[in-house]
Amino acid sequence: GSINSITINGQACPKIVNGQLTPLKVTTVVCPGLTLEENEKVSVAIGGQYIKRGGGLTHNIDGTLSGQAAKDHHLYGTDERVIVAYDFENEAEDVSGNNNDGTVTGTNCNAQGKVGKGCQLDGTVNQYIILNPIKNFPSTDITIAFFMKSSDTTKTGTPISYAVSGQDNEFLIFDYKDFSIYINGDASGGTGVSGNDGIWHHITVTWQSSDGEVKVFKDGIQTYTGTLKQGYNIINDGALVVGQEQDSVGGGFNPSQAFLGTIDEIVIYNEVITLDEIQTLSSL
Q1: Are 149 and 262 in contact (CB under 8 A)?
Q2: Residues 43, 150: one domain?
Q3: DSSP readout, 119-182?
Q4: pLDDT tens for residues 33-48?
């Protein structure tokens, strides 16, 4: 069956993500684009249809739910694989429930994002989001996904960096003109994937230690595969920085490597997620 319509407090969802239902499974149906205040009373009307087993007739379903909006109720909040998630609806609050809240420095995180609010960075070393240390950064399997929009053609702009003592490029997504992935200082080289043409793009990077396979996806499509640091374990308790490349833990920023543009919906998993899951994220 499928969910065809969702109305929240009289507002129709402009888009429904993951509306296809699977028998005997719980399905997380997402309605991006509508914002609720914490503790706001909520009434949800749902419309859908299914085909009755053993017959060919299509049955329509209608229902209503009511309750109260809760802080951190989000696409990522019930997924135990998520280490940190920033939707930037409330600065750099971690909506995964893991309390990995970031600190916003100089950055406008009330800008128009891909979904609701996003963080707009001006390409200087004075604007970034930092979490130092981040708890439970993935060691052997990782997915990092985010939306970005940039028109910059001069900088080697850095969306996300992770640094530890003794290794400032422990995990790095570098240069939105031609993304390179770094793990423990080793680089993939250019992947042929860019995100700086002035429109929103969803970028996903996955890596698994078992075979060293690293993949880059752009807008839900796999665009690069390589091998990097097979058998390595990423060191924990480092600093996560959005918008800067670190030459020391939590600092050593270079303006030529600073992010110029807007970033939104950052999520880090301790697992290589599936293509279907990547495509769901990219369709928000």
Answers
A1: yes
A2: no
A3: EEEESSTT-EEEESSPTT--SSEEEEEEEEE---SSS---SEEEEETTEEEEEEEE-TTS-EEE
A4: 666 665 555 666 666 6
42 and 112, same structural domain? Answer: no
Q: What digits encode the pLDDT tens for the residues 165-222?
A: 999 999 999 999 999 999 999 999 999 999 999 999 999 999 999 999 999 999 999 9
Contact status, residue 217 vs residue 172, Cβ threshold 8 Å? no
DSSP per residue, the chain: -EEEEEEETTEEPS--BS-B--TTS----B-TT----TT-EEEEEEEEEEEPTTS--EEEEEEEEEEE--TT-STTTT-TTEEEEE--EEEE-BTTSS----EEES-EEEEE-SSSEEEEEESSTT-EEEESSPTT--SSEEEEEEEEE---SSS---SEEEEETTEEEEEEEE-TTS-EEEETTEE----S----SSS-EEEEEEEETTT-EEEEEETTEEEEEEE--TT----SS-EEEES---SBTTB---GGGS-EEEEEEEEEESS---HHHHHHHHT-
Both structure tokens of 194: 């860019």
- Domain of 258: which CATH number? 2.60.120.200
Cβ–Cβ under 8 Å, residues 139 and 167: no
The Cβ of residue 164 has, within 10 Å, a number of other Cβ atoms equal to 20
* Domain membership of residue 41 as a residue range: 2-68
- Rounded Cα distance, 131 and 118, in Å: 17
Q: Which residue has the tokens 């807008």?
A: 219
* Phi and psi at residue 282, to the nearest 5°: -70, -15
Which is more confidently placed, 167 or 80?
167
